[in-house]
Write a structure and sequence with these properties.
alpha/beta, eight-stranded mixed sheet, 8 strands, globular
């Protein structure tokens, strides 16, 4: 992105969330229009990884307008591959209509069953990316840093793919829900969705020298006030908790490190970068909570446009309230997230 004299460099960290990833699409579109911000690093998991790749590729080869074009084309292809009929363009992809819809129906109907789910065959997202992804752009001079996560099936640990390592296989691994698709093998290891272990990567980017202001774009609710009472809501909340655990851990880790380092003089290197990190968060808690069960599994074009509009409006409201703080202080209250209080030792 071309830098204006007063622009602040930022890192975007994009959470996954299926069709809710279109919320991130809307947020990105609005942030790209803000001349006081300059995206210099992007991380993502699952749908957030797809958004991250399209964003960085677009910025590298054509600037913000190209990034917007690629993001829209990506989500249009997703809608068509899922069988959405409310599209006026992208007719060439009609050949693949229904592939993803079959997979989604499999998950919807069997998610509560103990019977194994047979993967439906080739991942249709590979077709979505074909002819759209240009990984060579990630090596272009001036391209933002790009990091996407996947989860090693054998160890449960995250693997982070950076810059030119972000291939179609890496993106498919990052978005590989095991209930839907077979594991993606890279370098002899099998990978599942990055949301299980790093959703999205934060601390590694900070330690690597990414801009200190990290804007986390959430696409799932962080909290729900009511205990779920139906089977569908129980499953959905369990998934939200599982996919949100890594982000909570990373934020707690950063907050704890900052508390420990707050009084240490003359820090340099990684420790200095951790201490000066500033976290921000954009999400639509109430709107996410109001969505019907399994909305994230319904990528119709109409729904994706609704999510994009929600993302753009949420980003607009966030900017009006918080833009002045970017570059100077966190807008996420880190002190309350620094640590879990340990139990007190018994007397004596």
């Amino acid at each position: 992105m071309a830098a204006s004299p007063a622009s602040v460099p930022v890192t975007l960290a994009l959470e996954g969330g299926g069709s809710f990833g279109a919320f991130g699409w809307g947020v990105i579109g609005r942030l790209l229009e803000e001349p006081r911000l300059r995206v210099e690093a992007v991380s993502g998991a699952s749908a957030g990884a797809m958004n991250a790749a399209m964003l960085v590729q677009g910025l590298a080869i054509g600037g913000p307008e190209e990034a917007k074009r690629l993001l829209e084309l990506f989500w249009r292809r997703v809608a068509v591959a899922a069988g959405s009929l409310d599209l006026d363009s992208a007719r060439w992809t009609r050949l693949f209509t229904g592939f993803l819809a079959v997979a989604l129906d499999e998950l919807r109907h069997k998610v509560l069953s103990h019977h194994p789910i047979t993967p439906p065959g080739p991942n249709p997202l590979r077709t979505v990316l074909a002819g759209l992804l240009d990984a060579s752009a990630f090596a272009a001079a001036g391209a933002p840093m790009l990091v996407v996560s996947a989860t090693n099936v054998r160890t449960g640990e995250p693997r982070l793919f950076a810059n030119t390592e972000v291939t179609a296989d890496a993106l498919l691994a990052s978005a590989c829900l095991p209930q839907l698709f077979p594991a993606v093998e890279i370098d002899g290891e099998a990978y599942w969705d990055g949301g299980y272990s790093s959703n999205p990567p934060l601390r590694p980017l900070i330690e690597a020298g990414a801009p200190s202001d990290v804007i986390v774009v959430r696409s799932t609710p962080a909290e729900r006030p009511d205990v779920p009472a139906t089977a569908g809501h129980v499953v959905e909340r369990a998934i939200e908790i599982a996919f949100g655990a890594a982000l909570r851990h990373e934020i707690r880790s950063i907050a704890g490190a900052q508390q420990l380092l707050s009084t240490v003089p003359r820090l340099t290197g990684v420790l200095a970068r951790l201490r000066r990190a500033r976290l921000h968060m954009i999400g639509a808690e109430e709107a996410f909570r109001a969505m019907r069960t399994s909305s994230h599994l319904h990528p119709s074009w109409g729904f994706l446009l609704e999510m994009r509009a929600l993302g753009a409006a949420t980003a607009e409201a966030w900017l009006s309230q918080n833009l002045a703080s970017v570059g100077s202080r966190s807008t996420v209250e880190l002190n309350t997230r620094a640590a879990i209080r340990p139990p007190e030792a018994p007397a004596g």
